[in-house]
Amino acid sequence: MTTPAPAASSAAAVPPVVAIAHHSGFGHTSVLAEAVREGAADTGATVHLVKVDEITEEQWALLDTADAIVFGSPTYMGTASGAFHVFAEATSKRWATRAWQDKLAAGFTNSGSKSGDKLHTLQFFSVLAAQHGMHWINLGLPSGWHSTTASENDLNRLGFYLGAGAQTDTDRGPDGVHKADIATAEHLGRRVAAQAAVYAAGRAAVAA
Prior knowledge:
Elements: E1 17-22, H1 28-42, E2 46-51, H2 57-65, E3 68-76, E4 79-80, H3 82-90, H4 92-97, E5 104-111, H5 118-131, E6 135-136, E7 164-167, H6 179-207
Parallel strand pairs: 1-2, 1-3, 3-5, 5-6, 5-7
Antiparallel strand pairs: 3-4
């Protein structure tokens, strides 16, 4: 007689919660944040957009209960914006209590140059996550637009691996954010949400 497999834990079926903590100086990074949101929501995740320069106590609580936090900021002068740095310093209260320990983390950024030292901003995000004991989720894409047969419309056209990097001409508004960069941000959102679901299911299985 075959023994039926145990029923899956109901906890594993609960959609993950993803929070996108971001700052946008001129609207370009908000476009990317929305793309990350759409990508994560496509997987069934519950997603919260949090503007860190307007954060409320209720939104701090959303970050505390999220399974994953995606950090986003423009790159100004080779690092995240001043508003994001203010938010990062304010997270020290969470650091002191280890409130974000073992959450997942990821990041995205935009600048006017193809490089613009965006890698430094992504590294800043990853170190911030490490200080909190979080687990960093990279972009998970090969680089695009790197051969004569490639295109600027490729995913990850700028060749970042640590997170999603975007470039927008400095004389264009938010509607000028490159479509490939938006699609790359959507990919990041889907990847983070999918990994959060796997992580939650694994924790539920271990606890069962």
